[in-house]
Each structure stands twice: as structure tokens, then as C-alpha cells.
TrEMBL record:
InterPro entries given in the database record: 4pyrrol_syn_uPrphyn_synt_sf, 4pyrrol_synth_uPrphyn_synth, UROS/Hem4
Regions annotated as coiled coil: none
Keyword Coiled coil in record: no
Identification of the protein by name: Uroporphyrinogen-III synthase
GO MF terms held by the record: uroporphyrinogen-III synthase activity
Enzyme category, top tier: lyase
Keywords: Lyase, Porphyrin biosynthesis
Family listed: Belongs to the uroporphyrinogen-III synthase family.
Length: 261
């Protein structure tokens, strides 16, 4: 990517971008944005806590070969899943197809040697549901690996298409604390864009920063139609939707922002 394309055209200052991913998940995106000429700041609006495995969870994993497809919705989910897979399946079942919303999560499973598919246009639930592998699923058993809560769209749509869907939860999302200086930056229209890729992060943003005019006047870059709608309902005035939460989609959306400066 041309590094100049993320610069504000009017004064050539770099875009100041708030990256809100959980601690430990921000490094690659921060590096990509810096390489593209932007000025990213990490203010985590989510914290991830792994859940203890229950006997029911263990039973589901032991029955993994009964599922035709396994969906891992994020890199966090994929890594936690593989940690458990090692315990019960030294040789993973060969007839399972693995599905992810984007290339980043897919790479984790692919490196492990698992057959994986993902959408090439977008990396959210809407894009994933356009995959041929998830279109004709009547009578199939599908395992949906995710964190507690989250969107019901995947499960409900796949069930409407005739699949039996079992959810397996690996973590919960909690609200972290932020420093007063970070709160002030969020309130002051300091950032050219705040990147939001989950409803929890959006809710935590308002909770941690407060319902301040400067916050609602700052541009939000969201990763799904649902987030766009929720942000509008909350009172945010400037919202742009990327095709997904992956780095390439985020950068493409930021290019469009920079081109309008």
C-alpha cells in the first residue's frame, strides 16, 4: 500500500487512529497502519477471559467427528480451540471442514493443518453466510465456536437453513479500565477515526469515555452493518463501515477517509 494514501491530503499530517482491540491482539494491525503512514494509538476497549472447560464442553469436543463443519469466529477462538483439540484429538477428524470469517483466523487453522474456507469479500458474519459451504446445510451438524454473548446471526441463519447448530463457548468479554489521559483523548475529537469491531467494544467506548459531544463527533470505523446501526442509535454522527475487521478491510476504509480530507 502507498503510505501516502493514509495521510490527510489537506495538510499531509498522518491520520490519528484509535485501535481498540484487546491487549495482545493489536500488534499486527498497529504495524500495518504505521507502515501505511498513519499514527495509531492502542486503547483496548475489550479484555478477554478464557472460560474453564466444563464436562459438557469436553463431551462436545470428544464428539467432534459428528460435525460436518466447525466455525471459529475469531483468532482468539481458534487459538483456544486448538489448545483443547490437542488434548483430545492428536489426529483431527478428517471429514470436518473448518470455516472462519477472515484470512487471519483461517491462517491459524491452516498452519495447524486443518482444511479451512473463508470469504474473500469481507470478514464478518454476513460475508461468511454467503460461502457455498454454509448455504446448503440441511441436516448437517455444525459446531459454532465463539465467546459468550455476541451476535445470534450465524446460529439463527444456519438453523433456518436446516442445520443443527451447537455453540461452544471459549471466553467471555469484559470491560477493561483505561487511563484518564486516554479517556480525555476519546472525548476531545483528537482521533481522526476510532476502530470498532464488536458491539461490546462499542458499548464499552461510551461507558468508559462518557456520553461527551466530542466522542459522538469523532468518526467511527465499524466492521458490520449491525455495528453501524447500533452506533447511529447511540448517537454517533460520523460512521463508516468497512467490509470487515481484518487489516486489509480496515486499511481500505481508512484510505477512503483520507481521500476525502
Amino acid at each position: 500500500m502507498n503510505s501516502q494514501r493514509l495521510l490527510r491530503h489537506s495538510d499531509q499530517k498522518p491520520l490519528k487512529i484509535a485501535v481498540t482491540r484487546p491487549k495482545g491482539q493489536e500488534a499486527l494491525l498497529m504495524q500495518e497502519l504505521e507502515a501505511a503512514g498513519a499514527e495509531p494509538y492502542h486503547i483496548p476497549l475489550l479484555a478477554i477471559e478464557a472460560l474453564e472447560e466444563t464436562p459438557a464442553d469436553r463431551s462436545t469436543l470428544l464428539d467432534l467427528d459428528l460435525y460436518s463443519k466447525v466455525i471459529c469466529v475469531s483468532p482468539v477462538t481458534a487459538n483456544l480451540f486448538l489448545d483443547r483439540l490437542d488434548q483430545y484429538w492428536p489426529q483431527p477428524p478428517v471429514k470436518v471442514l473448518w470455516v472462519t470469517p477472515g484470512a487471519g483466523t483461517a491462517a491459524i487453522l491452516d498452519d495447524y493443518g486443518l482444511p479451512v474456507v473463508y470469504p474473500e469479500q469481507g470478514d464478518n458474519s454476513e460475508a461468511m453466510l454467503t460461502l457455498p459451504a454454509l448455504t446448503n446445510v440441511t441436516g448437517e451438524k455444525i459446531l459454532l465456536c465463539k465467546g459468550e454473548g455476541g451476535r445470534p446471526l450465524l446460529k439463527s441463519t444456519l438453523e433456518e437453513r436446516g442445520a443443527q447448530v451447537k455453540e461452544l463457548f471459549f471466553y467471555k468479554r469484559v470491560c477493561p479500565s483505561i487511563m484518564s489521559a486516554e479517556r480525555e483523548l476519546l472525548q476531545s475529537e483528537y482521533f481522526d477515526a476510532i476502530l470498532i469491531s464488536s458491539l461490546d467494544a462499542l458499548s464499552h467506548l461510551v461507558h468508559l469515555a462518557g456520553a461527551e459531544p466530542g466522542l459522538f463527533n469523532t468518526l467511527l470505523l465499524v466492521s458490520s452493518p449491525r455495528l453501524r446501526q447500533e452506533a447511529r442509535t447511540m448517537g454517533f454522527k460520523k460512521i463508516i463501515q468497512a467490509k470487515g475487521a481484518g487489516g486489509p478491510w480496515q486499511q481500505a476504509a481508512l484510505e477512503s477517509i483520507a481521500s476525502q480530507r
